[in-house]
Amino acid sequence: MIGGLIAGIALDGIVRAAIWPESQQLYVVSIPDNIGVGRITNVTFITFNGGTIVNNTNITLDGAAIASGVTDKNGMAEFMVNATTNGSINVTAEKQGFHNGTSLIIATPGLIMTSSPASITSGTATYVNFSVTGMNKPVEGATVNLTGAGIDLEGITTSDGKIIMQVNAPSTGRIIASAKKTGYADDSTVIMSTGRQTLSVSSTHSSLTINVPVYVTFTVTAGGSPVNDVKVSLSGSATGSGITNQDGRAIIQVVPQSAGTISILATGTGFADGSTTMTSTGTQGLAIASSQATVTAGVPSYLLFTVTSGNNAVSDATVNLTGVATGTGVTNQNGQVIMQINSTGSGSFSASVNKQGYSSGSMALSASGQAALAVSANPSNIANGILTYVTFTVMSGNSAVGGATVSVSGGGISTDGMTNSAGQVTLQLNSGSAGTINVIARKTGFVDGLTTLAH
C-alpha cells in the first residue's frame, strides 16, 4: 500500500513540478494523518521532491505531539506519536539544499473500549460489561454496536462510560464491539463466541432393585474435567435431584418405585446437557450359607453365616434361627454375622434371612446327638501295694480323642489326667484296699466312657 502511495505521490509531484517548478522543494506525507489523543500510534512519514524520494531527511513534530526522526534510504521514517491534547500536529521535513516541507496530522480524542468477559458461549445469554473512555475519562453517550456470530445489538453508554448488554449469540465466531462518538476517534474490541462443551455424567451403579434405597454417586465432567454446580435430575422409575460439588460429584439416595429405566440428566449453565440411564429390576432373592451345617446337640458352637444376592454381599440383613436352636443376628458390610448355637437337643433347625426389597432365603441345619467315648487300660489288672504305670486310651468310634479327662477312683486311688493328641494318658497307680477301681473318660460334646480295673 505504501508503495502505491509513493507512486501516487511521485506522480502528483511531477504534475506539481510542471505547474510550480520547485526543484528544491521538499514534500512530506503522514500515514495516518488522523490519530487519537492519549493513544500511542505508529506513524509513517515519507519525504520526496518531485518524482524522487529524498532520504536522510529530518522529520520534526510539534503542537499536540512532539517527536523527531530521520528518513531512511527509502525516504521513510516510522516512529511512535503520542498526542497529549486534541488539535493539530505540525510536521516539518528539513534537509540541506531543500526548501522545508510541511504537513499536518489531526489529533482527535480517541475512544478506548473494553469488554468483560471477552468470551461467551453460543446459545447462552450472557451479560457483558462494556466500558468506554477517552483521555482517561469516562465517555457518556458513546454508541456501542455489536455485530457478528448472528447478533446485531446497539446501546448508549451512561455517565460512567459504561453499558451492560445481554448477549446471546446463536452461532460461534467473532463479535465486533465498536464504540463511536462525534469528536472522538472510533475504537473496537472483539468478543469470541465459542461452542458449548457437552456434559458427561456417570454413576456408581448401573442397576438397582425396586424399593431398595441406595446412595448413588453421580460424576459430571466436560472435556475430561469435573464440573461443579451442575444439576443432576432423575426421572422414570425413580426421581430425585442433586447439585455437583467442586469434584463434579452429587450423591443422591435413589429408591426405584417400579421396574424399568431411570433417566439421569445433567444440566449446567454454559454447557450442553449430558445424560445416561440406570435400570431398576424386580426384587432380588437372598441366599444364606453357613460355615457348617451340623452342630452337636447341647454343645455351644459359633457359626458364621454369609448372606448374598447374586454375587453381592448384603449388609443389614436379619438372620433368624428356628427349631432346636434359636437366635437373631444382623449381617455386617461384608454380609456376614457370627451367631452362637446352643441346641436344646438333637434334631433340625433352620436359618432364614430377610431384608426389605429382597425375597427371603433360608437353609436347613441339624443338631446331632453326642458321640460316646470308650476308654481302655493297659494293663487292666494291677496288684495291691505295688506301684504300677497304667496307660489309658480314649476313643470315639475309630478316632482317638485328645483333651479328654480320665479320672480313676476306688481301691484307695483318686487321680486324673488328660489325653494327648493320640488319645492317651499314663497314670501312676497304687491300690491299697479292696473295692472296685472305676475309670471315667469325659469331654464336652461326648457321652462319658466307663471301664474298671481289676486288682
Can you walk through the features of this model?
- The relative contact order is 0.07.
- By secondary structure, this protein is mainly beta.
- Residues 9-21 have low confidence and may be disordered.
- The longest helix is centred in the N-terminal third of the chain and has 18 residues, at 2-19.
- The termini are far apart.
- It has five domains: 2-109, Macroglobulin (MG2) domain (Immunoglobulin-like), CATH 2.60.40.1930; 111-194, Immunoglobulins (Immunoglobulin-like, Sandwich); 198-281, Immunoglobulin-like (Sandwich); 284-368, Immunoglobulins (Immunoglobulin-like, Sandwich); 371-453, Immunoglobulin-like (Sandwich), CATH 2.60.40.
- Helix content is 4%, strand content 58%.
- Strand 24 and strand 25 (240-243) form a beta hairpin.
- The strands form 13 sheets. A five-stranded mixed sheet has the order 2-9-8-5-6, with no helix packed on it. Strands 11-18-17-14-15 form a five-stranded mixed sheet, with no helix packed on it. The chain has a five-stranded mixed sheet with strand order 21-29-27-24-25, with no helix packed on it.
What structural keywords apply?
mainly beta; 5-stranded mixed beta sheet; 50 strands; 4% helix; 1 helix; 5 domains; rod-shaped; Immunoglobulin-like; 455 residues
